[in-house]
């Protein structure tokens, strides 16, 4: 059994202005930060689309504000790589989505890659992925959660001292969030790319791997 060093959850909810939010934590009372749908968009039309419920997630620039560290803009785009920047426009990196999705730093160096989980098929409850380093070492498993039952997937692998999950409540949204089981400590750059991918999938509705495209 692979040792799990961290469980990272991102839970979807809504703000009063109807924008989706995803709040990340790695334990009870241990928030890491939160992202707001379209928080980095400046166009009035885009903001009104969110306000009136025309955009239930999707493309746009989603602003992630961590408890510690610098804010991150995750620009989810159609048929183009996802762009990661600081709010002032400073390049952070990008994620090229595909059968193998590849995240790169601002200098073009590969950081992480995401693939369909080779042992677990997609279900009505979740889309499972593996997260790898460039050398092919699997460093995490990521579930894009679709139903309440999806939060419990893989609980038999998680030590009780780490797991704090709860069922939560159903919401009229495309996904309920993301659940990541981490097998190896992440560097700051890797952690930021992982968070960005969760936002890109759950809020930006961008497909990673092949199962999400069917």
3D structure, described in words:
The chain is globular and about 40 Å long. Strands 1-2-3-4-5-6-7-8-9-10-11-12 form a twelve-stranded antiparallel β-barrel. With 214 residues, it is mainly beta. A hairpin with a 5-residue loop joins strand 4 and strand 5. 11% of the residues lie in helices and 36% in strands. About 12% of the residues have low confidence. It has one domain.
List keywords for this structure.
214 residues; mainly beta; 2 helices; 12 strands
| Mean pLDDT score | 84
Number of strands: 12
H/E series: EEEHEEEEEEEEEH
Shape annotation: globular
Q: Rg, please?
A: 16 Å
Span between termini: 31 Å
Which structural class do the helices and strands define? mainly beta
Count, helices: 2
Unreliable parts:
44-54, 157-171
Strand content: 35-45%
Topology at a glance:
Elements: E1 6-14, E2 20-25, E3 31-36, H1 44-51, E4 60-66, E5 72-76, E6 82-85, E7 91-96, E8 101-105, E9 110-116, E10 126-132, E11 138-145, E12 177-182, H2 188-202
Antiparallel strand pairs: 1-2, 1-12, 2-3, 3-4, 4-5, 5-6, 6-7, 7-8, 8-9, 9-10, 10-11, 11-12
